[in-house]
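To close the chapter, one final illustration. This time we ask the reader to focus less on the individual chains and more on the assembly as a whole: which components sit near each other, and how the overall shape emerges from the parts.
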Amino acid sequence: MDIDFQKLLDGVLNKDVRLTSRAITLVENENPESVSMLKKLFKHTGNAKIIGITGPPGSGKSTLTDKLAKAARHQGKTVGIVAVDPTSPFTGGAILGDRVRMQEISTDPGVFIRSMGTRGQLGGLAKATMSAVRVLDAYGCDYIFIETVGVGQSEVDIIKLADLVCIVLIPGMGDDIQSIKAGIMEIGDIFTINKCDREGVERLYTELNMMLDLRDSSEVRPPVLKTIAQTGEGVSEMLEEADKLFYNMKESGKLQKRRKRNLKIEVENILTSIFVKKVNKVAAETGLMDDYADKMSKKESDPFTVAEDILNKL
Amino acid sequence: MDIDFQKLLDGVLNKDVRLTSRAITLVENENPESVSMLKKLFKHTGNAKIIGITGPPGSGKSTLTDKLAKAARHQGKTVGIVAVDPTSPFTGGAILGDRVRMQEISTDPGVFIRSMGTRGQLGGLAKATMSAVRVLDAYGCDYIFIETVGVGQSEVDIIKLADLVCIVLIPGMGDDIQSIKAGIMEIGDIFTINKCDREGVERLYTELNMMLDLRDSSEVRPPVLKTIAQTGEGVSEMLEEADKLFYNMKESGKLQKRRKRNLKIEVENILTSIFVKKVNKVAAETGLMDDYADKMSKKESDPFTVAEDILNKL
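The assembled structure is written out below.
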């Protein structure tokens, strides 16, 4: 199959929905030629506000993202949503439910929704996610939401690639604030208490604020918001808050700093991905790995020695 | 701090509990010198039965692992448990509860329990897990259980490194069988329906068997077992079944084949880990990454071009 990447690139830049969809599919599938397209795309990116949305299962992230997208659409903005599947082999009802719910807005041509599934490869999911984000950015999306359930190391790594991270919590999650590991609190720029019609909101609100007060005072104190995504309550206020934060981050230089950090991580993901592919290719072509596996099986070698051997050969 | 790795190695081989604990801690922390110990250890490994236990949150994996360990202890066997923390930033009650429950058996000197937490690095968690398993194997553990909640790409990758994978399910998980993605069914060697005192057991049992009947008939058909881990019902039968399977896998050559495959994956994890460290080191020392980030910021370059540049430099 011959793919005309120049045509796809032009399609993206000219806001052709069909060609943009196609372009995203190709970068998702890591089509080798799509790299040249991504390289050319890059200089047309940087205008979208990339917002990461994460939270525990059942916190209503998808509904919230859906409603944020609608709020942005009301302002005439275009929206991209990249939903990162938790790649759980056991999907509970919630995850399947989310996907159905998302389809509610998927008929709106001003909203692009992509669901990223499993990538068999280290760093692959993060790489594919960011590549999809770049295409949506070049296409001209004003907002791009990266949504992922906060489970698994790789998923957390992905959400950090956004410009701004929103942590969604709900009242009554067992030990509430104690149940959130330290690491995640530090990456949150906005905290949203969703399902605010439930009991325990005030307690969570107070605890969250107390915890955030203890953070480094030289940093901007993240706001704690309240929403009921189901009814849309507090959603447009949340979008406003995000806009305000973007403005401040831009003014203070923090946005540029964070984007630089994220670009470095993106390069690392790409490097790892290239490296792993190279290793696999060399190993497959030469039957090298089979020989090594035999040797290790017989205890004539061990995984660390083999790894060093291969490194020397590359 | 000077660490005598020869002494640690001798300690492990002489079944010194304190020194073995120490050795595991060092390999977990990826102490660079621990590599030489792991290399020397390797030829003393291969005797343990490495069993992976996974399942959705709330399926009672930890209790089941705990009870399997006890059953093995009753036969005078020694047991290692490597519990891989799902590294979720949002720990629900269940995960914290598991850990407390595990402490019940942690006072038994014939059982080693290690909990593996977050590793900030690609492939790092899998590498650290397998290194801990190797130490426990060399120490002389008869059974080593790798237990992980089935969420997140990395966690699934880890469970595949076991000799034998047991998938734990419970009745009443919403759509039951439909909620399990195809990929996980294929890696299961044993299916256990836990919490069999609940409603819906027979339906799940029938559905599972029907699904497994559709699998490739040249493969051994995995057994479907029933347990109530809480009371211990069916647990010793499960251990027996696992032993039977090990015996058959050994006889048919399947065990050796799978171990070879797993050794290859282990090498890949080590390679990636070395590579990522190398990249980070070069980047940090030369300030290379900062220059690249500046260039990318100004759209004078892009992540793919930078990655290729760095690869050429390495």
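The two ends of chain A are 32 Å apart (CA to CA). The longest strand of chain A covers residues 49-55. With these observations in hand, you are ready for the problems at the end of the chapter.
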